[in-house]
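Researcher: Predict the fold of Phorbol-ester/DAG-type domain-containing protein.
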Amino acid sequence: MQKLQKCEFERNSYKDDYERMRAESGKLRSENSEFRKLQSENLSLKNNEKLLERKIVELELQLKKSRSTVQKEPEIVSCEKLNEPSTSQFDAIKKGKVAEIREKLQKGAQSVVDIRSLEQQLNQIKELQTSTQLELEEIRKRELALINENTLLRQNFAECLQKAENFRDQFKGSNEESDKLKLELKIAEEKKVSLEDKLQEALADLEQKSKLVAYLQSVMQPKQMQKLPRPRPSLLSSESDYISEIESEYKQCQQLEQQRDELKNDLEMKRRVLAETQNNQKIEEDEIVPLINVRRSIRDQQSCETLSQTTSESLTLKTFVTGTHSNFTPGKMRHDIPHRWKRQFVTMASNRCQFCFEGFPYFTYVYRCRDCNMVVHKHCKVSVVNTCGLPYECADFYLDAYSGGMNGEQMTGWIKLLVLPASMPSGATPLQRNGPPFICINLDHEQWRIYNQTTEKPLGGVKENDMSMLIELRMPNRTLLMLTPTSQAKQRWVQALQQATNRRIFIQRRPSSTI
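Model: Structure tokens for Phorbol-ester/DAG-type domain-containing protein follow.
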């Protein structure tokens, strides 16, 4: 039991570890999904960084071009001042040049504004680049941390899987061990039950042997002899005294051996006399009580039921259940040998209990005598009389002898017999009290059953109040309906019929050796 408790405790602990590992694996899966999201964000940031770098290069090229154009404009103005044509031409040229210069100045101012805006954008882009680089470094650090954590979690997950597999193997081993322990426990319980049965049988044998020893000791009591005191002198005076003492002890030993032989002879003589007396008693019993012949003569003169007819309205039945037994008085049975019971498990029992004559259920324990093979129920074992080894003819004889003396040799009484008018013989007249019977039923040989009609529907010609006093006998060829005058008479008739039933069951039983 301690091993089973230990296995259950380990199984519960393994279950807790397995659930904890499942929770950790779920966390790892969620963190892995977050890591994949961060990787995708990192790739998008890298692409944005490359685009910004390209824009910075393009802006720097545009800035250089604008600076070169601004530096070339004063050279053009100086060249125009050197060439002074005529006034009209000069004015026209001056106006055109002024307009061009103004346009160029406007363009230069606009380009300066654009350059300043581009420089501001460039500074912003640089700041954004630095911030993105910092974020990228942080993301890389987080990525490294997540990679390390992922590797650690993968290692832990592999360890969890290994532990789960080990737990599964241990669980299977613990289940096998628990099954083995249960089987051993079942075998131990069966051994315990068998040892208890053997102990009870040994105690019964010991008690029987002790009773037998006490009986034999009470029958054969040896003569009580006074023990001779052995002289043991403290000091030996001489060698002659020592020799005389040895001779006296030798003589005493011879006398004791002679007395022992005499007692043995007496015991053998008493045993022979006892055996002869027992044989004589058996011979006398066989001469006085011829069991087989008496049983046959008794069973030939079976009980019968005599029916007699009354008036045309109701027929009256006078029945004699004759149990004509022998005139001699049965002797007292002095058979007192207890049975030695042995418990036996049966799956399909075809025999009946030899005490209550009821069948055995399937898959049960029965008790069988070791000597006479009598089979009884567990609750019937206590009520069985000490008749081990008694012949069945002797039991039948005593049953037949005492059954007639208990209730008398015949059962008499008046009842009504319900018959159909067509079944009555032609010219039938009411029978007198001392007339011969017209129906005889052998209650010992025919298979019949008693039905007490108490809750059935009333029959034709029978009042509803009289249904409780109706007795129905169903036989293979016919059915008898007997109506008793009173409920006490019905009880007496049912008791007589039940006694005939018990007698029939006891006659039909046979000794059973196997089940």
